[in-house]
Automatic annotation (TrEMBL):
The lineage of its organism: Bacteria, Bacillati, Cyanobacteriota, Cyanophyceae, Synechococcales. It comes from Prochlorococcus marinus (strain MIT 9301). Keywords: ATP-binding, Magnesium, Manganese, Metal-binding, Nucleotide-binding, Nucleotidyltransferase, Transferase. This is Protein nucleotidyltransferase YdiU. It catalyses: L-tyrosyl-[protein] + ATP = O-(5'-adenylyl)-L-tyrosyl-[protein] + diphosphate; L-seryl-[protein] + UTP = O-(5'-uridylyl)-L-seryl-[protein] + diphosphate; L-histidyl-[protein] + UTP = N(tele)-(5'-uridylyl)-L-histidyl-[protein] + diphosphate; L-tyrosyl-[protein] + UTP = O-(5'-uridylyl)-L-tyrosyl-[protein] + diphosphate. GO terms for molecular function: AMPylase activity; ATP binding; magnesium ion binding; manganese ion binding. The keyword Manganese applies.
Amino acid sequence: MSTKSNSLKEKLTENFSEFSQLSDYSFMNSLNADPQSTKDGNDHKPRSVYSGHYVPVVPTAIPEPEYISHSKKLFKELRLSSNLTKDQNFCRFFSGDISVANYPMSPVGWATGYALSIYGTEYTQQCPFGTGNGYGDGRAISVFEGLFNGKRMEMQLKGGGPTPYCRGADGRAVLRSSVREFLAQELMDALGIPTSRSLTLYVSRSEIVRRPWYSKGSRYFEPDIMIDNQAAITTRVAPSFLRVGQIELFARRVRNNAHDEALNELKMIVKHLIHRNYKDEIDNEISIESKVIKLASLYRSRLISLIANWMRVGYCQGNFNSDNCAAGGYTLDYGPFGFCELFDPRFQPWTGGGEHFSFFNQPFAAAINFKTFCSSLSPLLSGNKQDQGKLDQIEKDFSELMNKELKKMWANKLGLEHYNETLINEFFNLMVISKADYTILFRKLSEIPDNSYSLKDSFYFPIDDELNNRWEVWLKNWQSILKKEGNIKAKSALMKSLNPVYTWREWMVVPAYEEAEKGNYKKIKELQDIFSNPYIEQPSEIDQKYNRLKPSQYFNYGGVSHYSCSS
Ligand SMILES: Nc1ncnc2c1ncn2[C@@H]1O[C@H](COP(=O)(O)OP(=O)(O)OP(=O)(O)O)[C@@H](O)[C@H]1O
Ligand SMILES: [Mg+2]
């Protein structure tokens, strides 16, 4: 009996009509549509959107879509059968032709507006109307919301054609950036870092868009040519795609007395955020003021943990504006991101990013986004001084708690129970002077070596005797603390669970999207395999290929070591 019910429970969704039965829309049912929008979602030209939480939009399908890949892991988690990828309607739907939607699915998707603050400075000029009312999802369109094993998930096409927020751009994403986002989400999830997830990746055999990019071997900082790219659509999945910038938009409207419904719309979107991302942790029965305070405190914990995790694996988001900061506490928008190879605290692959969004500055950028988040919640406290005091305190404590978490992370990354300032400062100095590869060095240290010879393959240049001696001294000090603290074998195992073997190396990903441009998807699948298990050493043939220092020719190489945000 129990076997039977288990097998029933395990039944996978096999075809598109079963898939449609999973749909259950709360976004469109419980929030306000822009009153000026049309129900049919035929709304693809830039225009001002003054109110409402979303605009109904029908995506523009990419012509002649070809399936490239899907996330086997996410499919399993959602209990979707891989057979679905062979279903014609599934393919049409996730390549943008949602006219195939069956009841209870909606044949219309939605795009949302959001505000933009760059490192705390509010921008309004970023839209064609100079007001900020034309800024939001320009090419991201949500098309599905459903219940999967009781978990509510939203599915969003990236590159699904223009929306009213497109600001005159084409609404498309190129194959290169879609491959990057698809693979990066897979890797981040496997690294154990909260993230939007990859569902599927389709490319158009016939639609071409032009973008500035780098010529082969370019040493230019900014793109030097225009190139033709195939359009692609990748679908990402998350409990919500709400951003700090979105809460900010509604709060700005309250502050500016933009319309009578402004405060109510802010309240609705915050309640929606709680419902989507914090439902299990916030009691529905408490007052809105108490909910807001709890929300700020929960988001603070999630954001702090997220940033510490980014630092742990060498991830640099690159463009950590309020509009690229998910209010649910996970990584969102894999645009000009990168992973640090040669250790550099100022690592920043995006040419437009500046130092403020660089690798080691991310805790500060996060603190600023958190401040924006808190001040956006403030109007919901109805001027109550005591509640405002609590919210202010939560915001004020961000940096101290962030520091604490970082110290814990650095200590654990080195197998230590406690942060040791002298030891860790000397370690950072040595990493910089020795020109170490961030991932390889930490992984080699996870073997807890007792001599510097074991580290030599993690340096980009041979180190001299003096430096060598410094490493020897450091290793000795480190080992003696480790030994005092306890079981070395257990420490090594812990370090290996925090320090991956394999990481994102852009020069390995470039051939994957370049081959894909020629219709060969083998390298994408290979990388997907490697990225699915980044903490486990692969057999030596595979290991030699993927566990390597960045070759010298790829330094200062346009499109590899740095890139513009032309996606
Ligand atoms: N080709 C395009 N067509 C329309 N809008 C675009 C296009 N490229 C970028 N945008 C819009 O410009 C804004 C800034 O772009 P950014 O690179 O931060 O985001 P993105 O990578 O497109 O999307 P997301 O943050 O949803 O992952 C976003 O609102 C985005 O929707
Ligand atoms: Mg973005």
